[in-house]
Amino acid sequence: MDNLFEFAQFFLYQASTDEQLSLTHQAWRLLSNGELQLSANQPALPITQVKFPDRPELLPPRLMPNRKLNAPGGIAAFFHAIAHIEFIAIYLAWDIIYRFRNLPDTFYQDWLRVADEEAQHFELIREHLQGMGVNYGDLPAHSGLWSHANDTKDDVLARLALVPRCLEARGLDVTPGLIDKFKQLGDTASVALLNRILVDEIGHVERGSFWFKTLCIHQGFEPETQYRQLIGQYYLGGKPKGPFNHKLRLLAGFSATELEWLERN
């Protein structure tokens, strides 16, 4: 394959997990070397036909077991949950490439880099889990993450508002506290892994902020007003709940006005 959209379609509709990881890295290498075409020659297939692995078992959030880090198996359960988030994040990066056409080449370059980094995260976490005697898929996982992709399948602004600027941005709020907990446990391997993910995720949210604002202006919308409108329309509960990490969100492209709105009851 030498076309980005062919890679995306194969990832989303045909590939096994190991194939998905391999072709994500291959696509990024080809693009980095200027060897990948960025013009779509076929319309996108329906998002309802996207293929997922048979495992892990997907449960509604309310049915997910709640295990504390210091409980037996708690650390493995925590990293299995993070592995699933990162795995779906690869899908989300590929889907924003595949689903939305006729955007600047740099849009596709940015999101393919994100897909490649999310695949690296997943591989690192999977290896970390295997060191605890657990494979990805051995435990149940949260079923709700992909629903945001389906909800925003026809609106790139809604996708950018909901995924990088809402779901991924939540990681900027909670990960520093989790890193502190693992420091207290003396788990240096977990601290290093979470620090690596956090640094990359700041960049992913920043790209979401950049493209949200860029495409808002291109479509004639005021970005902050449009962000509030889309979150109110698509986010269950009206808007995310804090506390919010202002320092990291500002680094990731949130404005002080947006943070003030998010903090407001």
Architecture overview:
This protein is mainly α and 265 residues long. It folds into two domains: 123 residues, no CATH class; 120 residues, no CATH class. Helices cover 64% and strands 2% of the residues. A two-stranded parallel ribbon has the order 1-2. The protein is globular. It starts with a helix and ends with a helix.
| Regions with little confidence, pLDDT below 50 for 5+ residues | none
Give the tally of structural domains.
Answer: 2
Percentage of residues in helical conformation: 55-70%
For the biggest β-sheet, the strand order reads: 1-2
Radius of gyration (CA) equals 18 Å
Element-by-element helix/strand order: HHEHHEHHHHHH
Instruction: Quickly count the helices.
Output: 10
How would a textbook summarize the main sheet? 2 strands, parallel
Large-scale geometry: globular
Structural class: mainly alpha
End-to-end span in angstroms? Answer: 50 Å
β-sheet strand percentage:
under 5%
